[in-house]
Amino acid sequence: IKRDPKFSEITPEHVKSFKDLLGSESAVIDGVSQDATEDIEPFNADWMRKYRGHTKLVVKPGSTEQVSKIMKYCNDNMLAVVPQGGNTGLVGGSVPVFDEIVLNLSRMNKIRSFDEVSGIFVADAGVILEVADNFLAEKKHIFPLDLGAKGSCHIGGNVATNAGGLRLLRYGSLHGNVLGIEAVLPDGTIVDDLSKLRKNNTGYDLKQLFIGGEGTIGVITAISILCPQRSPAVNVAYFGLESFEKVQMAFREAKNQLSEILSAFELMDGRSQKLLKIAKERKLPLEGEYPFYCLIETSGSNSDHDSEKLNTFLEHVMGEEIVKDGVVGQDQTQNLDLWACREGVPETLGHWGGVYKYDLSVPIEELYQLVDETREKLTAEGLVGDDDSYPVVDVVGYGHMGDANLHLNVPTRRFDKAVEKALEPFVYEWVQKRNGSISAEHGLGIAKKAFIGYSRSETMIRLMKQIKDLYDPNGIMNPYKYI
Ligand code: FAD
Ligand code: S2G
Ligand code: ZN
């Protein structure tokens, strides 16, 4: 990719304008005149350390009006902009490709309102997900999204990436839970659609364009979202199983027997758990080693009722030998420890150097077949092994079984062209043949932009580009990415 010459280089005059506009030193990290108030590098590098930009200017607005003025200035001066939240995205969407300005939302972190009756929560985009969820827990409510990055990611970034995560099985997608959005278009227009209505059938539902828009048509500055009651009774169980067929049987049984209290069903293969044990130097919850593990969570209103249901379910799946061994958390600490065996996987896989990540929607009955076929292919090409002479440590599969969302991850000791060639386009063609998605929840960013055609038709891509051109005619929003 080449830097697009239509974008201006950032000059000291631009920096002065931003400083005047923002009216505070701490809101501008000036890498142009070299007297940056803080290190600019963290804003250039993504969470995986796979993508690195070269911005010379980070601006941190404190209000929607300031975002509007910044965007209008950038649009009038042809300055490219990357909106940035917690910078935990996994497709390189949150860091510049070249010297795009980073517009970081961390100073816009006010919780605006919460209605105890309706459960409607309104907050700035820069509120950290865990902060939002803790605030709601005090009010006996829950943010209808949870993911491993909760300690850093912003709710604005979650909406911009339409993040799926660990609670989607129970609470659905952000496309359904987000009621309203306040955003700023490149020309400074403030999209004032911060509705608190559960139902409003008056015209096109434009907020949906920003949910999953990945910062390519506007900057989300606030969201309003419907938050469910928090269930007082939460149980977590961790199982070992002997085959993927048994995993599917366990999933079906869980839906039948636990039904309305089932709030998560996650898959981790034995290899991912073995690597977690090595990287985190920790024991696994079960004595034996199994080729598959599941983590399930129930959330309900009556602890006795739920425990009885869960125990009946457990006796059944153990009795039928669907599950070989299992453990139920006895308290919150144990529940968190069981969850850590699932949430600790992404970080674990970066332990040896790099990871080739594939976040795929595939037909659930074939979900693990791709992992086996990928491992066979890389092994046949002599790329997988236990010592440093091999680039690939292993090929693992885990993810949101309930959403038929596989995270196929290939942890490596180093990024290696031969590995990339073996994986791409093999993985994408495999998914396309089964009408799956080459990016189930992480979005496109820069990593998956070139592969959108495996999951979207030419027509759909053309229609999306028309919307992009309508809202961002100068193309200054998050260029080089997405579509
Ligand atoms: P950033 O990473 O800063 O930005 C992400 C994208 O959104 C970029 O394109 C950026 O330009 C844009 N953006 C950010 N803020 C705004 C805004 N206010 N307005 C407009 N555009 C904006 N994802 C899942 O879906 N499911 C998971 O289970 C999951 N688990 C994860 C576990 C770990 C350990 C990590 C590190 C990540 C995980 N993710 C998961 C990725 C997840 O999508 C991101 O973590 C998160 O949703 C992005 O939020 P953020 O604030 O970090 O945004
Ligand atoms: C998850 C996180 C990132 C990865 O853990 O559910 O979305 O490693 C993933 O794929
Ligand atoms: Zn995920």
UniProtKB/TrEMBL annotation:
Its EC number is 1.1.99.39. It is an enzyme of class 1 (oxidoreductase). Residues 51-230 form the FAD-binding PCMH-type domain. GO terms for molecular function: (R)-2-hydroxyglutarate dehydrogenase activity; D-lactate dehydrogenase (cytochrome) activity; FAD binding; metal ion binding. One of its GO terms (biological process) is malate metabolic process. GO terms for cellular component: mitochondrion. Pfam families: FAD-oxidase_C, FAD_binding_4. It catalyses: (R)-lactate + 2 Fe(III)-[cytochrome c] = 2 Fe(II)-[cytochrome c] + pyruvate + 2 H(+); (R)-malate + A = oxaloacetate + AH2. Gene3D superfamilies: 3.30.465.10, 3.30.70.2190, 3.30.70.2740, Uridine Diphospho-n-acetylenolpyruvylglucosamine Reductase, domain 2, Vanillyl-alcohol Oxidase, Chain A, domain 4. SUPFAM superfamilies: FAD-binding/transporter-associated domain-like, FAD-linked oxidases, C-terminal domain. Catalyzes the oxidation of D-2-hydroxyglutarate (D-2-HG) to alpha-ketoglutarate. Also catalyzes the oxidation of other D-2-hydroxyacids, such as D-malate (D-MAL) and D-lactate (D-LAC). Exhibits high activities towards D-2-HG and D-MAL but a very weak activity towards D-LAC. This is D-2-hydroxyglutarate dehydrogenase, mitochondrial. It comes from Aulographum hederae CBS 113979.
